[in-house]
Design a protein that fits this description.
The chain is of the alpha/beta class and about 130 residues long. Helices cover about 30% and strands about 15% of the residues. α2 packs parallel to α3.
Length: about 130
């Protein structure tokens, strides 16, 4: 996400805005900067996918319970088939309205279970890498 908030770690020029080496775009690869929690809002992502005949997506990223979840939900609602690799998305500890701290592992498990079957199919990353059996 390319945040416009002055204090955000995802603002351009901050470490959180940089690509990790293992997922850095290849030369000539399209990069679409998003400014909201869903990669479909305020971008031409849906148009690009449809023009390219792409109907199946693998979605990964940071904050499964936020940006990843919003993008997965929108993709599912738009009719895309979404694969969500459980180990290729990250969650953080969350504090609820009552002050209870929910460990990242619990947040992660619950967020995956909410998305699985309705908006996406949760898969193991290695299964995707291995390809069809």
């Amino acid at each position: 996400m390319t945040s416009t908030s002055a204090n955000s770690p995802y603002r351009p020029g901050q470490a959180g805005n940089a690509f990790k080496t293992e997922v850095a775009p290849r030369a000539g690869e399209t990069v679409i900067a998003k400014r909201t929690n869903s990669a479909f809002i305020g971008t031409d992502l849906e148009e690009r996918l449809r023009q390219s005949g792409i109907s199946r997506l693998v979605i990964t990223g940071v904050l499964l319970e936020n940006s990843v979840g919003a993008t997965v939900r929108m993709a599912g609602n738009l009719g895309f088939e979404v694969l969500l690799p459980a180990e290729a998305v990250a969650s953080t500890d969350r504090i609820d309205r009552n002050g209870k701290i929910w460990p990242a592992e619990d947040v992660h498990a619950l967020a995956l279970s909410i998305l699985d079957g309705e908006y996406a199919t949760v898969v193991e990353t290695q299964d995707l890498l291995d390809g069809p059996a």
